[in-house]
Specification:
The complex is a heterodimer of chains A (325) and B (318). Chain A has 325 residues and is α/β, with parallel strands linked by helices. Chain A has two domains: 165 residues, Thiamin diphosphate (ThDP)-binding fold, Pyr/PP domains (Rossmann fold, 3-Layer(aba) Sandwich); 127 residues, 3-Layer(aba) Sandwich (Rossmann fold), CATH 3.40.50. Chain A contains 13 helices and twelve strands. Chain A is globular. With 318 residues, chain B is α/β, with parallel strands linked by helices. The chains are: A alpha/beta (325), B alpha/beta (318).
Chain lengths: 325, 318
């Protein structure tokens, strides 16, 4: 490991070589293919940024390079699935969920094809590449498509577990993952079940419900606040659809307040989904949604953006403390 | 029009031989059946794409009754050739064929578009046996076909994939993404057929967004191109037989079928507004007579039997 690699680095090839979590996609698909599962993969000119170059090298006959034609890739993946393969197709979340929204709706979800869509570098993790490359709408769009499962793993080990669980999952899945070299929350082989939230703890004062990359900073924030004497909990809502409504209600019944944390617009994302449950079920807890507040995100290195939008540990902690005070 | 592009065929094609007059008669009769059934079904829905079907009636007939390797009554047979339709709005002409092949109960046709019917304006693979992929949003089907051909190659499945595209569909960017992709991956089992009828909803295709020179475009994208009169079942069937029989194909091929939108009904042929329409009962009667008379003329010496059976099939389920 080269410790000089900066957290804002974009050296894909270097990261592929040394950051194990970036090649989670490739490594896990290799593992599944070697185990005899009919997995195939494709990308749209991003095999180094998503690490699929590794899979392509190991199983060239199972890999399709579609070039910069994301819509063609998604529609073709749906066609491939009719022949009995399980296609995993990956590109930046901003292009996958927004540019290919209609292909996902019609060819994948409506046609009920078991395609696994991997939207990587989601949220604001593309940093200074700017708004065109940020995806702060993908959860809202994807979760409004019927029969599509939406999963936002917190880290590499959880993503790997979700990929393993996906081989015999009947429905199409949209995976929303971050850069792949994010701090890890879970040990390898931590159990994973689609639609079943991981309740770390429930707090009497506040329970944070987070999804994706923000789970790690939220856990750090929880620990700091607990040391200060607050009763704070954390739920990792890795599956946004189908949402684990029971877990939300457990928090609503235990905690005075719920704070949702997501690297996404607060409209229509995790916060929106939790709000729908609380409104319908009548939970007494006050809800505060933390995320991007319906604005186009700024340009900056990723760590600067996380700080600015208070999605790092300190930002989540301060947001929560303001509620607790 | 004789098919062009023959010189590009490899020498070791095992030509199955030309269609016989009897086979040609049968294909014309089935095209007539498609037109008559389309009129009947649209009379149930009260609006529909007559002219979009009439331009490709011979293509439906030739593919389903001559070219494709399919098994009557077995829509899910894994070895079947696949048929996808980018111009999904012509499904009203495909459904009677699928029912005729015993892929589903012919009685379904009688409830075309009614509440709860599996049969709507566009083909739905989850609802209609024999539909190999759903469509409705123009421009996806060639990509779906690319995926099927890729999957078949990896799975070592032996089938051809035929994709019928509208000429207005050539304006969709995704078609050309798929075209690049198919050529790059050398998908020789993929055959696109462009129904070049010249019109789309808002008018003439080439006035709206010119697609010519279309054959040159497909060639430039790395496809083998053939041009054929899309209403000449003999030319069409012979071309498709030779393509199908050629097991050395290493590139995808595109057939540009020169057709007439609304073929068979003179006023539809000259009025692009008929993309979507409805025939009042008296007009419907006259349209049926016109189609039968046209088929009669095209198939003079054998028309009697063929057309009689088309009328019977059509009216038998009315």
């Amino acid at each position: 490991m080269n410790s000089t690699l900066h957290p804002d680095s974009w050296q894909y090839r270097e990261l592929n070589k040394r950051a194990p979590s970036l090649s989670v996609l490739s490594d896990t698909l290799i593992e599944l293919a070697e185990a005899g599962h009919p997995v195939v993969a494709g990308t749209a000119d991003l095999q180094h940024s998503n690490g699929l170059a590794g899979f392509a090298g190991r199983f060239p006959e199972r890999f399709t390079q579609f070039g910069i034609s994301e819509q063609n890739m998604v529609s073709a993946a749906a066609g491939m699935a009719t022949t009995g393969v399980i296609p995993y197709v990956a590109t930046f979340a901003s292009f996958l969920a927004l540019l290919c929204c209609e292909q996902i709706r019609m060819d994948v979800a409506y046609c009920a094809q078991p395609v696994r869509l991997i939207g990587h570098h989601t949220g604001i993790s593309m940093g200074f590449y700017g708004t065109s490359h940020h995806a702060t709408e993908d959860i809202a769009i994807m979760r409004s498509i019927a029969d599509l499962t939406v999963v936002s793993p917190a880290d590499g080990p959880q993503f790997a577990a979700a990929l393993r669980a996906s081989v015999d999952y009947p429905q199409p899945i949209y995976f929303r993952i971050s850069r792949g070299h994010d701090p890890e929350v879970y040990a390898r082989d931590t159990p994973f079940e689609f639609g079943k939230a991981i309740i770390h703890e429930l707090g009497r004062d506040l329970t944070i419900i987070a999804t994706g990359m923000p789970v790690h900073p939220a856990r750090t924030a929880m620990r700091t606040l607990q040391e200060e004497g607050y009763s704070v909990g954390l739920i990792d809502m890795h599956t946004i659809k189908p949402l684990d409504r029971a877990a939300v209600m457990q928090a609503a019944k235990t905690s005075r307040m719920i704070l949702t944390v997501e690297e996404h617009n607060v409209l229509g994302g995790l916060g929106g989904a939790v709000a729908e449950v609380l409104a319908e079920e009548g939970g007494g807890a006050r809800l505060v949604r933390h995320g991007i507040r319906d604005e186009f995100s700024l340009i900056a290195p990723p760590t600067h953006l996380y700080r600015h939008y208070r999605l790092d540990a300190k930002g989540v902690e301060e947001t929560a403390r303001a509620l607790l005070a | 029009m004789e098919p062009t592009g023959a010189t590009s065929w490899p020498r070791n094609v095992s030509d199955p031989g030309p269609v016989t007059p009897q086979e040609a008669e049968r294909l014309r009769e089935r095209a007539c059946f498609v037109r008559l059934e389309t009129i009947r079904l649209i009379s149930i829905a009260k609006v529909g794409h007559y002219s979009s079907v009439f331009s490709c009636a011979e293509i439906f007939s030739t593919l389903y009754y001559d070219t494709m390797n399919i098994r009557r009554g077995e829509p899910g047979w894994p070895g079947r050739d696949r048929f996808l339709m980018g111009k999904g709005h012509a499904a009203v002409g495909q459904f009677p064929v699928l029912a005729d092949l015993d892929f589903f109960d012919k009685a379904w046709l009688d409830d075309y578009t009614r509440l709860g019917s599996p049969l709507g304006d566009h083909p739905d693979m989850r609802k209609v046996p024999g539909v190999d992929f759903s469509s409705g949003s123009i421009g996806h089907a060639l990509s779906n076909g690319v995926g099927m051909a890729l999957g078949a190659r990896f799975r070592k499945q032996d089938f051809d994939v035929f994709v019928l595209l509208g000429d207005g569909e050539m304006q969709e960017g995704q078609v050309w993404e798929a075209a690049l992709s198919a050529a790059t991956h050398r998908l020789g089992r993929l055959v696109a057929i462009v129904d070049r009828n010249g019109y789309q909803l808002d008018g003439s295709v080439d006035d709206i967004a010119a697609v010519e020179p279309l054959a040159d475009k497909w060639r430039a994208f790395g496809w083998v191109v053939h041009e054929v009169d899309g209403h000449d079942v003999v030319a069409l069937a012979n071309l498709l037989r030779r393509i199908k029989a050629d097991r050395t194909r290493s590139q995808p091929c595109c057939i540009i079928a020169r057709t007439v939108k609304g073929k068979g009904i003179d006023y539809m042929e000259t009025e692009p507004g008929w993309h979507l329409g409805y025939l009042a009962p008296e007009d419907e009667r006259r349209a049926r007579e016109t189609i039968l008379a046209g088929a009669d003329a095209a198939n003079a010496e054998v028309a009697g039997n063929g057309i009689a059976s088309a009328v019977m099939t059509s009216e038998g389920t009315a």
